[in-house]
Amino acid sequence: MIRTVHRVLLLLAVAVAAALLVLPATAKTNKTVVTVKATNSLKFILSTKTVKAGVVSFKVTNTGSIPHDFKIAGKKTPLLGAGKSATLTVTLKKGKKYPYLCTVPGHAAAGMKGTVKVI
Q1: 8 Å CB contact between 51 and 116
Q2: Of all helices (H) and strands (E), which one includes residue 101?
Q3: Which residues does residue 44 pair with via DSSP β-bridges, in sequence order?
Q4: Residue 98, Cβ neighbours under 10 Å: how many?
Q5: DSSP bridge partners of 38
Q6: Is residue 84 part of a domain?
Q7: In 3-state terms, what secondary structure has residue 31?
Q8: Fewer beta carbons within 10 angstroms: which end of the chain, N or C?
Q9: Predicted pLDDT at 27
Q10: Domain tally for the chain?
């Protein structure tokens, strides 16, 4: 009887240990990082305009001397002064296109806008 209890406890401990080893691997999410440069020429330069579905972080840096921000998927960075950076993390769905833009008046109209495609 005691031997059976020990075997059950041992099997249970092995099962829990195996579950703990497998759980982090299956719980990982694919995270894409896109670097974004905001320039004085009123343009964004993105490291890629096509991303995989899931969590995407946009690391935005203002390489110019006038303030800019970056808006995509309903989220927006703070207004970034010269040389400042911010990271914006959003979840994007497969098969969609997401417009992005600078919300400073006149900047999007001058060219600070585009689209990110999700595959």
Answers
A1: yes
A2: strand 97-101
A3: 38
A4: 17
A5: 44, 62
A6: yes
A7: strand
A8: N
A9: 46
A10: 1
Please report, for the domain that includes residue 75, its CATH number: 2.60.40.420
Please give the average pLDDT of every successive group of 10 residues along the chain, which has 119 residues: 57 55 51 96 98 98 97 98 98 98 98 98
Indicate whether 94 belongs to any domain.
Answer: yes
CA-to-CA dists, residue 18 to 6, 14, 70, angstroms = 18, 6, 43
Helices and strands in the chain: count of H runs, count of E runs: 1, 9
Calpha distance 57→7 (Å, rounded): 48
Terminal C-alpha separation, the chain: 57
Contacts 24+ apart (CB under 8 A), 32-36: 32/56, 32/57, 33/57, 33/58, 33/59, 34/58, 34/59, 34/116, 35/59, 35/61, 36/60, 36/61, 36/70
C-alpha distance from residue 40 to each of 53, 58, 66, 85 (Å):
31, 19, 7, 15
Give dist(CA 38, CA 84) in Å, integer. 10
Tokens of 28: 């990982």
Structural domain includes residue 91: yes
Q: Which domain holds residue 99?
A: 31-118
Residue 56 pairs in a beta bridge with 32, 90
